[in-house]
Structures are given as C-alpha cells and as structure tokens.
Design a protein that fits this description.
- The chain folds into three domains: 2-88; 98-195 and 286-331, Alpha-Beta Plaits (2-Layer Sandwich), CATH 3.30.70.1660; 206-279, Double Stranded RNA Binding Domain (2-Layer Sandwich), CATH 3.30.160.20.
- The chain is 42% helix and 22% strand.
- It has helices at 2-15, 18-33, 41-70, 73-88, 109-129, 158-162, 222-226, 250-272, 316-319, 325-331; strands at 98-104, 132-140, 146-154, 167-174, 183-194, 209-214, 230-235, 240-244, 292-297, 303-306, 312-313.
- Strand 2 (132-140) and strand 3 (146-154) form a beta hairpin.
Length: 337
C-alpha cells in the first residue's frame, strides 16, 4: 500500500507541475515586493490572490510527503484521493471562484421552500470546504422560502467542483403546507458560472448599460430599506439583467452587480466561442430547465439519487445538511459539452 501511495504522490507532483508552481511563487513574491505594483491596487490584488492560490496548492502537495514520512497511511490515502480529484480540474476557470444561483420553479410556496432548502444545503457545503461566500442578491417568498438567491463563492477550485451542479433539482415529499400532508413534487434550478477575472478583455460600453437603483427588499437592517441602496443592471444588447441588494452601500452593490454581469457575459462568450462582447448573438436566455440532474425523495421512501452519475444516498437528511461531497466529486468526471 505504501509503495502504491508513493507512486500516486509522484504522479500528483507531475500533474500539478509542483516545481513550476514553486518558481512561479518566487516570481510573484518578487513582483509584490516592488512598491510600484501597488499603484494599481486592482492588479496587485489579483497577483496576491494568484500567489495565495499557488501557495495553497503547493502546501497541499507537500503535506502528502509529510504524511508519508509520518506513516499515517489512512489519512494519506484520503488526502491523495482529494488531490487526484483536483488534478482532473484543468479546464478554463476550474480553479476560480464562482457564482451560484438557486431559483424556485413553478409551484408557489412549495417550490420556494425547496429553493430555500437547497440554499441551506449549499451554504453548509461551502462552510465545510472552507470557502468564503457572500449573498449578493436574495428574493424572499411571500409565505415561506425564497424565489431566488445568488451566492458569490471565493474558494480555490470552487467553480471546478460546482460547475456540474447546474440543472434542475427535484424534491418529492409530503407537503408541510397543507393539512392533508399530500405528496408533492417541487423543482428548483441551480446555475453555476465562473467568476471572470478582470484580466479578461471585456469591453462593456456604458451606453449598453441600463442602471436602476431601488430599495432592497431583503435583510440588511433599517438603512437598507429606507434608501435606494440596491442596484439592478441590464445589458441592453443581450438582455442580461443582474442585481445586488444585500450590501448597505449603493456603490458596493453596483460593484458586485457589475462583476456578476461581466461573469455572465464572459461565460456566454466562452459558450459561443467569441472573443468580444459585441460578437454575442441573439438575446440572452437563462439556464434551461432541460432535464433534472438529481432527485431528492423524502416520501414514500428516502433516497437521493443523481440521474447522471447514479451516485445515491439513503440519508437525505445528511445530504440536505451539506454532505454532498460524493455527488460533487463524481460530477467532476462528467464529460464536458
């Protein structure tokens, strides 16, 4: 077993280009020592983030050597399996952060409650992974749950891990919203897009933007609801609309909304294989409901099953509490289209 693990460690070092990353760390550290680089704070911040990500990856690989020397093969096997997953994530943006949107489907309060349950599941998963995240937009349901919510997730490889969570999620349960406890089927849509770096060439004309300010409807304290701090931005050529309302200050919400818009446009450019925003054709269409990717059955039996990978769990309570590692990890290996 020890020889097999040692071979896997060496394979991981090769696939992650460990030595190259160490050289890159030295180069970036030297750049940040130059005070002139900080004249452009945004550029310096991007370099700092890249440096932190590289150090994080190197530390993870070097930890494998340490565990091997200690003879802790049980923990080593676990860490090796985690690193092997990361080596698969080599597509554009896989190592970047992401935005994840959860939207209730048709079905009124039932669907909104289901969207809220999914929101809780993913937020607990973020915590488990040690990722930073923030809600940038949330629309509450009239009676219960949420109509939609958008998370900005900052974590190394968070897009790579979550990109195949996009799709329709189906819940079957006894309804808690009627006296007869009838069985009810609800749907919610999950959309995951990468955070597009400001280094990418995204020329967005101010004349192509319609920017509106409004009073926030969600949580955030008295000041949020008394003044128009929330921001909605529409990209007129594509019809993409984004908003941010959870920050206390209008400028911050505008910044978050604009970054989300850039990410949506960048994602669309990747899908349509164009290199300029102006070349995007047609009107933007939101993520299609298409097909469901996962069923969560709470009644008449208990089972969560991914219809693509066949991964399943008979403990939906654990899954809905954020224990979705197996589902997410297996999804990484799905073929890309």
């Amino acid at each position: 077993m020890s020889e097999e693990l040692l071979q896997k460690i060496n394979d991981i070092k090769k696939s992650t280009k460990l030595n190259e990353k160490k050289e890159e760390i030295k180069a970036l550290s030297t750049r940040l020592e130059d005070s002139a680089i900080w004249a452009d704070h945004q550029k310096a911040s991007l370099i700092s983030k890249n440096l932190a990500d590289l150090k994080n990856m190197v530390e993870k690989v070097e930890e494998l050597d340490l565990l091997y020397e200690m003879g802790d093969f049980a923990e080593l096997a676990k860490k090796v399996a985690e690193m092997e997953v990361l080596t698969v994530l080599s597509a554009p943006y896989d190592k970047d952060g992401c935005y994840i949107t959860i939207s209730a489907g048709q079905g009124g309060t039932e669907a909104m409650d289901w969207a809220s349950m999914l929101s809780r599941m993913y937020s607990r998963f973020f915590v488990k992974k040690g990722w930073d995240f923030v809600v940038i937009d949330e629309n509450q349901g009239e009676e219960a749950g949420i109509k939609s919510i958008i998370y900005k997730v900052d974590g190394l490889y968070s897009y790579g891990f979550l990109k195949n969570e996009s799709g329709a999620h189906r819940l079957v349960r006894q309804s808690p919203f009627n006296a007869d406890n009838l069985r009810q089927t609800s749907f919610a849509q999950v959309e995951v897009i990468p955070q597009i770096s400001n280094e990418k060439n995204l020329d967005i004309l101010e004349t192509d933007l319609q920017i509106d300010f409004f009073r926030a409807s969600g949580h955030g304290g008295q000041n949020v609801n008394k003044v128009s701090t929330a921001v909605r931005i529409k990209h007129i050529p594509t019809g993409i609309v984004v908003s941010s309302q959870t920050e206390r200050y209008q400028n911050k919400n505008r910044e978050l909304a604009l970054n989300l818009l850039k990410s949506k446009l960048g994602d669309l450019m990747e899908k349509e294989k164009v290199d300029e925003v102006s070349k995007i054709k047609g009107d933007f269409k939101p993520a299609s409901w298409g097909y469901q990717i996962r069923n969560y059955v709470l009644h008449p039996y208990k089972l969560v099953k991914d219809v693509r990978t066949q991964v399943e769990s008979t403990r939906p309570d654990l899954v809905l509490d954020g224990d979705i590692d197996e589902f997410v990890n297996r999804g990484i290996y799905l073929p890309t289209t």
